[in-house]
Automatic annotation (TrEMBL):
InterPro entries: SCP2_sterol-bd_dom, SCP2_sterol-bd_dom_sf, UbiT. Required for O(2)-independent ubiquinone (coenzyme Q) biosynthesis. Likely functions as an accessory factor. Residues 56-151 form the SCP2 domain. The gene is ubiT. This is Ubiquinone biosynthesis accessory factor UbiT. Belongs to the UbiT family. It comes from Marinobacter albus.
């Protein structure tokens, strides 16, 4: 005897109910920043460099080759989540973006969602700063120069997650 179960249908990837539910969860779940900060402190610098440098240099290879990052030679900028953790300090030396230890001359701070919005280019970067979702501290001229450079480059990053991969 063969039993046949009814076929379950999954929500489409962009179903309104699913989108609303995820929005509510993002709004009311606690921030992952403290957990990410604890994990970040335990990851050795060489692992961070291995994980971040190659993808960043591939992503911006054309701009680096065209000299777009030359004004950042020897400079350090820190990207940081609110409340000071976790973060990453980036520098540019000898034609390569580098992950380095320590603070930056400029700090760009914001929520995880603000950085994601910036990376995915879903909103004008100026709006993120005017709305205070992203804040520049320290050498604001350096931070604004990076923001303007990134805004003027052609690049794409996607953090799309699929809850229902077969839909």
């Amino acid at each position: 005897m063969h039993l046949s179960l009814p076929k379950l249908t999954a929500f489409p990837a962009h179903h309104p109910l699913l989108d609303q539910s995820l929005t509510v969860l993002r709004e009311y779940l606690p921030s992952p920043a403290p957990l990410l900060g604890a994990v970040d402190q335990r990851i050795p610098m060489p692992v961070k460099q291995l994980a971040a440098e190659a993808p960043l240099n591939r992503l911006f290879a054309r701009a680096i080759a065209e000299g777009e990052f030359d004004d950042f030679e020897g400079r350090k900028i820190r990207l940081e989540l609110n409340e000071g953790h976790p973060g990453i300090t980036l520098g540019f030396w000898s034609g390569r973006l580098r992950v380095v230890d320590g603070s930056g001359e400029a700090i760009i701070r914001g929520s995880l969602s603000a950085f994601r919005t910036l990376a995915e280019r879903r909103q004008d970067p100026d709006q993120l700063f005017f709305q205070r979702r992203l804040v520049i501290e320290g050498d604001t001229e350096l931070g604004l120069a990076l923001k303007n450079l990134l805004d003027g480059l052609e690049w794409t990053v996607s953090f799309r997650t699929t809850l229902f991969p077969n839909s």
